[in-house]
Amino acid sequence: MAAFLPFAILVSLLAAGATADNGYTTPTTPPPQQSDKLLVRVEGLVLCQSCAHRNSWRLDDAAPLPGAKVTVTCRDGKNRVMAWRAATADGSGYFLAEFGVTAVTDFFTGDPRKACFVRLLASPDFKCNLLTNVNSGLEGAPLRDEDKRWPGQGYDNVVYAAGPLAFRPATCVPSHHY
């Protein structure tokens, strides 16, 4: 009978609702309600690639390219262009393009990350104006979801990111003297 005493105590404690965490429980929060409409914003950086890394995807020592232009294109459910925006980089090379409130189902595959892409358009700097395909700036840079989402009034605000994208100098001084 003495062998069953600890088991009896355990059973009675469990029946009373005792837990190993001294009765403390972690509050559970419901997952955020996702709307069927989105206000999509796309952000990124445009840089001037250094001569030391031309013909590569490296952006070490790259400088912001103020005034650079990019286009953001989104496709609809039938894979046709449904909207596009041109965006201009600010003094730090940052750009932001905003689309109006759109039903999620209007985007190709119902996902703006798969329906939209960013391409380099133009550089205001004649010393750094050759397009590169760094992060697919020529082909169309895909969007990344960086968990920037908050509710609006009947829609969700979402900010996706692309890039960084880069132009490269038209001419570079040779690094070797022969």
TrEMBL record:
Keywords carried by this UniProt record: Signal
Pfam families associated with the record: Pollen_Ole_e_1
Parts of the chain that traverse the membrane: none
Position of the signal peptide: 1-20
Record carries keyword Signal: yes
A GO CC term attached to the entry: cell periphery
PANTHER family registered for this protein in UniProt: OS01G0164025 PROTEIN, OS01G0164075 PROTEIN
Name recorded for this polypeptide: Pollen Ole e 1 allergen and extensin family protein
